[in-house]
Amino acid sequence: MPGHEPYKNRLAIPYITPSGVVDIRFRALTPEQEPKYLGLVGSKTTMFNTQALFAANKYICVTEGEFDCIMMSVKTPHPTVGIPGANNWKPHYVKLLDDFETVIVLADGDAAGLEFGKKISRELGNVNIISMPDGEDVNSMIIKKGSNWIHERIEQCISTIG
């Protein structure tokens, strides 16, 4: 689109709500592209895939990043929201997640991912953290091990929900 030239050769990830597209983020397609994600000028980071909050029942999954959330939504039956980066957790997200019996954080296998999971756990009392192996994230694990790898770990977390 006109005005989006700086985002050329990137994957456009729309933030869709019932009122339509409210934001677009752009993800690098190759490791050489920096930064990995770009946002529209003036946009504020928000939770991705908020429709899952209404579709979820007793539990919800939280990923670090939109792409991992997309993979969860496409490859598993688990309702998932995404936080656009480990440092973009906002305190008011607690109000959106507090009513779930279990919040399952799918933490990236790095220091930022571990801190992301711990931060959410400190703010909510109903958190289970599933850490990805070192250097991995949800997307890479689904590609390497298949969606069943993550599905089995989530099933272990939710098997105790009444």
What can be said about this structure in brief?
The chain has about 160 residues and is α/β, with parallel strands linked by helices. The chain has helices at about 50-55, 65-75, 95, 110-125, 140-145, 145-160, and strands spanning about 10-15, 20-30, 35-40, 60-65, 80-85, 100-105, 125-130. The longest helix has 13 residues, at about 110-125.
Descriptive tags:
162 residues, alpha/beta, Dna Topoisomerase Vi A Subunit, Chain: A, domain 2, 2 domains, 4-stranded parallel beta sheet, 3-stranded antiparallel beta sheet, 6 helices, 25% strand, globular
Give a structural overview.
With 162 residues, the protein is an alpha/beta fold. The protein folds into 2 domains: 5-39, no CATH class; 51-158, Dna Topoisomerase Vi A Subunit, Chain: A, domain 2, CATH 3.40.1360. The chain has 6 helices and 7 strands. The chain has helices at 51-55, 66-75, 93-97, 111-123, 138-145, 147-158, and strands at residues 10-17, 20-28, 37-39, 59-64, 80-83, 102-107, 127-131. The strands form 2 sheets. The chain has a 4-stranded parallel sheet with strand order 5-4-6-7, with helices on both faces. Helix 5 packs across helix 6. The mean pLDDT is 91.
Q: Outline, from the CA principal axes? A: globular
Task: Report how far the terminal alpha carbons are from each other.
Answer: 49 Å
Approximately how much beta-strand content do the residues carry? 25-35%
Helix content: 25-40%
Poorly predicted runs are: none
Please tally the β strands and state the result. Answer: 7
| CATH class annotation of the largest domain | Alpha Beta
**What would you call the quaternary organization?**
single chain
Annotated CATH topology of the largest domain: Dna Topoisomerase Vi A Subunit, Chain: A, domain 2
CATH architecture title of the largest domain: 3-Layer(aba) Sandwich
SS element count, helices: 6
Estimate nothing, just give the exact number of structural domains: 2
Average pLDDT taken over every residue: 91
Q: Give the topology string: H per helix, E per strand.
A: EEEHEHEHEHEHH
Provide the spatial order of strands within the biggest beta sheet: 5-4-6-7
